[in-house]
Write a structure and sequence with these properties.
Length: 818
């Protein structure tokens, strides 16, 4: 089969051998000098075209010798036409003049870094998003970004997925969509499963590493991810995308847009259906999502209303696979079952399941069922030639539950009296419970942008409020309950107000040297009260005021080389569980981060390189130590000093018209200077409770690999056909903060192969067929896990759990545009 493919590609290559030249270059804005990501270059009357990448670069390949007229277009800029005579490879620097009208980019301008910002960031264009969007959650679209590691509970990238950037988990990564905060206000987590296929509606993404520039919402304590769904399509279109693949994966996406009506109005819509059985047993996903947008575009005014959201029904696979099951060690599995208190049915499931796909849950409705909608209204105005502004209102309601079948539960644990059946008192029962979350998030964001001559400045900020109710219900019990109708065995509510204001400015001291300053004030007021699910009452409240200054410089050595350096501070409040689980009379401290970034960027005709050094120095970072509070819940503790330090290399080389390589490398150290591990000794007869502390120094921060490598090698054997080898290496990661080799995730090296072929057929504007073979070489690996331990019965007990990822699997996709 491989020989046949090689022969076919060779023949095709010979057929196209006469197309020996290429037109490449970079497209910049005249006013700011910034790269115009997504600008298009097309030959008149011929179907040769290209789209500018995240550096503004473009390449049109396999051009026969001759004269051509190029049309260069980008929304918000004057169209330009250039005559070129092709007899050799040509490199062009194209500068577009601004049009005197607003563009959608004003909505995210305030929260993004520019090309000349002294910060560390990566832009992902619409073109790159489309290539990788086979229906998996957004983290898997971003997988090859620098310093980024993805996780998937179900093992195949659909359902509950997550990302870590420089070792920082989702609770420390600020996410905004069109400048609106997306992180959950209480946990600060990011649940991509609630907005499936958001990638299809995304125009561009910027990933900032470190503190980054000021933004709205939760503090960027490791990175920020900024999505923009704001795009205006000049021409009407209709899209139909279908995907199928391993593990019963199916995706159907339909979208359309009216184009610009009467030179002022646009309407866009999209709906997506995604289903997958998952790699892990029963780890299915049934995802529904939609996107609607309507806009008015005047010469100086934009009004845009956006509504998007989805519903997810995801079978739970968050328990993980015991290490004993992965190792197929029967004695160890029986020990695991004994420690966990599993019954005969669960033990049989453990012993007979596939070692890599084991799921402890086997109840048919053990699902997470949640619906979330997002309403956004954006108003942008060009106030003068130098001043523009944007204001947005938003509202996000969400409601749902996760359902669980629980064995042998005590009535007392649910606040119920023990029922009497006949003459016998019953103390326990099997039951089905639902734990609910019903919340509302709303607020306002704004920015005013000033740009004149050597100076540009942005004043921005937001006020947001979150109100959320948590409660639990029992919907069935094997033994009749002594409870009223609609009984809630716990109920509590949380209320958070978040206010921030920032002012950032960039001043060109000379034609090559510019200075940057960014000042942010943020205030958080959080209260929560009620009964927690363990039936303990709580009443917590805290107010935090943060001042986060950032300064930096940027120096252009010449038109292709730039040096930058910055110093930033970020502060972050504890999350809900930190407040609730704190011991009586104590309160968790705020966390503080001092961040240094320094780098060198160079861009050539056929290459680019970005070298970056970073130091993230933490004060009072909250980490798990193994400690429990007075009711047995895990407690995160502030550690005095910890840091992340490393070097990031990001770059690309165009070897010729057919071969391109882009890649990134991160080498880092991630340490806690002094760490106290806590383990409990319950004695020989499990009748004691002794806290033992182990003092450790210079230990690794959990889930922080020292080496991360991403690579994309692309081969274009003939026009409109692309073959890419996507590679990812992630070094070993420790499950806790003890640097213990018996509690770690092994390193892994995964390679995917992606193919795409685009062509035209009657009645269609474009038709594209794509395929991806994930984990081509069938690497056996896990991307996430957890650990716990204690002492009892005269021995030390340690249990590790992992989340295995799928072996070789595939996805096929057809994309039609009418």
């Amino acid at each position: 089969m491989i020989k046949v493919i090689v022969v076919i590609l060779s023949i095709a290559n010979c057929v196209n051998a006469l197309a020996q030249f290429q037109i490449s270059g970079v497209i910049l804005a005249e006013s700011s000098g910034q790269a115009l990501v997504g600008a298009t270059v097309q030959t008149v009357n011929l179907n040769y075209y290209a789209v500018a990448d995240n550096k503004g670069r473009f390449t049109i390949e396999n051009i026969p010798q001759g004269s051509y007229q190029l049309n260069i277009r980008f929304l918000g800029f004057q169209e330009q036409q250039i005559e070129v005579n092709v007899s050799e490879d040509i490199f062009l620097t194209i500068v577009l003049k601004d049009e005197a009208k607003l563009t959608d980019e004003i909505v995210v301008f305030a929260t993004r870094a520019s090309e000349k910002s002294p910060t560390t960031f990566t832009n992902i264009s619409k073109t790159e998003i489309i290539k990788q969007n086979f229906g998996q959650d957004l983290p898997f679209v971003l997988n090859w970004s620098p310093s980024l590691v993805t996780t998937s509970d179900a093992g195949a990238g659909i359902g509950y997925t997550g990302l870590r950037i420089r070792g920082s988990d989702a609770t420390r990564v600020n996410v905004t969509i069109n400048g609106i905060p997306y992180n959950d206000s209480e946990s600060q987590g990011v649940f991509w499963v609630n907005i499936p296929d958001i990638a299809f509606s995304t125009q561009s993404i910027q990933v900032q590493r470190g503190v980054g520039t000021s933004t709205n919402g939760a503090g960027a304590f490791g990175a920020s991810v900024n999505l923009s769904t704001m795009s205006r399509n000049e021409e009407p279109y209709a899209d139909l995308v279908g995907s199928v693949g391993s593990f019963g994966t199916r995706r159907l996406t339909a979208g359309f847009g009216t184009g610009l009506i009467n030179n002022h109005f646009t309407f866009d819509a999209r709906t997506s259906l995604i289903n997958s059985e998952g790699f892990i047993d029963r780890a299915s996903s049934d995802l529904r999502s939609y996107y609607l947008a309507g806009g008015y575009y005047g010469k100086k005014t934009i009004i845009k209303a956006i509504v998007f959201g989805g519903r997810e029904i995801t079978y739970q696979s968050w328990y993980g696979v015991p290490e004993s099951r992965l190792n197929n060690d029967v004695d160890a599995m029986l020990e695991t079952a004994s420690i966990e208190g599993w019954n005969d049915q669960q033990i049989d499931n453990l012993l007979t399941s596939n070692p890599r796909t084991f799921n402890i849950y086997d109840y048919k409705d053990q699902v997470d069922n949640y619906t979330q909608d997002h309403f956004q209204l954006h108003f942008s105005q060009q106030i003068s030639s130098s001043v523009s502004g944007n204001i947005a209102l938003h509202y996000t309601p969400g409601k749902g539950y996760y359902e669980e079948y629980k064995y042998n539960q005590s009535f007392e644990g649910y606040g119920l009296e023990n029922p009497v059946v006949g003459s016998d008192t019953v103390y326990t029962t099997d039951l089905i419970r639902r734990r609910w979350l019903d919340n509302d998030f709303y607020g306002i964001t704004y920015s005013v942008n000033y740009e004149r001559g050597k100076y540009n400045s942005t004043l921005g900020g937001a006020w947001n409020r979150y109100q959320g109710d948590h409660f639990g219900q029992i919907i069935w019990a094997e033994v009749g309950l002594t409870a009223p109708k609609d009984y809630r065995y716990y109920f509590n509510s949380g209320d958070q107000e978040d206010f921030n204001i920032f002012w950032k400015s960039n001043f060109h001291i000379t034609s090559r040297l510019s200075a940057y300053m960014d000042l942010q004030y943020r205030s958080v007021d959080y209260t929560a009260t009620g009964i927690e699910n363990d039936l303990n009452a709580f009443n917590v409240g805290a107010r935090y005021d943060f001042f986060n200054p950032k300064i930096g410089i940027s120096y252009e050595i010449d038109d292709k080389k730039q040096f930058y350096a910055s110093y930033s501070t970020g502060q972050r409040e504890p999350v809900r569980d930190d407040f609730i689980n704190a011991n009586a009379g104590t309160s968790p401290k705020r966390e503080k981060l001092m961040n240094v970034e320094a780098g060198y960027r160079i861009t050539g005709k056929n290459y680019s390189l970005n070298l970056n050094y970073y130091l993230m120095d933490y004060k009072d970072q909250l980490v798990l130590t193994g400690a429990l509070n007075d009711v047995g819940a895990p407690v995160r503790t502030n550690v005095d000093k910890s840091f992340r330090s490393g070097v990031e290399v990001e770059g690309g080389i165009r070897f010729g018209p057919k071969v391109t390589w882009v890649g990134n490398l991160t080498l880092s150290q991630n340490k806690i200077r002094k760490f106290t591990e806590v383990i409990y000794d319950y004695g020989i007869n499990y009748d004691e409770y002794i806290e033992i502390q182990n003092q450790l120094e210079n230990v690794d921060i959990s889930f922080s690999p020292e080496v991360i490598v991403g690579s994309n090698l692309t081969f274009i054997p003939f026009r409109h056909f692309e073959l890419s080898l996507l590679s990812k290496y992630v070094g070993e990661q420790f499950l806790d903060n003890t640097s213990n080799d018996n509690r770690k995730i092994d390193d892994y090296f995964v390679n995917d192969v992606r193919l795409g072929y685009e062509f035209t057929v009657p009645l269609l504007k474009t038709c594209k067929l794509s395929a991806i073979v994930n984990n081509m070489f069938d690497e056996v690996y896990e991307s996430n896990g957890y650990t716990y331990g204690f002492m009892g019965g005269g021995e030390t007990i340690r249990q590790n759990y992992f989340y295995p990822q799928a072996g070789r699997n595939f996805l096929l996709m057809a994309s039609l545009r009418f």
